[in-house]
Specification:
With 79 residues, the chain is an alpha+beta fold. It is built from two helices and five strands, in the order E-E-E-E-E-H-H.
Length: 79
């Protein structure tokens, strides 16, 4: 996976076990209180994909909403 534009990525530890990594917090990802480590490569990739679909765009969505609000405010003041 290893793409820096994604929030969640997969990495392999020295024992050839895989984990899902949270690039935003710079620590192993967790779900439901469980750290997502000790996984097979395929499972880690699928979990990271799902996590990116569910939570990966929160920062981007927040920035978009913020700029939309700013745009509306500017339009009201300028119209």
């Amino acid at each position: 996976m290893c793409s820096s534009d994604q929030r969640y990525d997969v990495i392999c530890d020295p024992l050839d076990l895989w984990m899902v990594w949270d690039n935003e917090t710079e620590e192993p990802a967790s779900f439901g209180g469980q750290i997502l480590h000790g996984l097979t490569e395929g499972h880690a990739i699928e979990v990271a994909k799902i996590m990116n679909e569910l939570y990966g765009n929160e920062k981007r969505d927040a920035a978009r909403l913020s700029s939309d609000d700013l745009g509306q405010t500017t339009c009201r003041g300028g119209c």
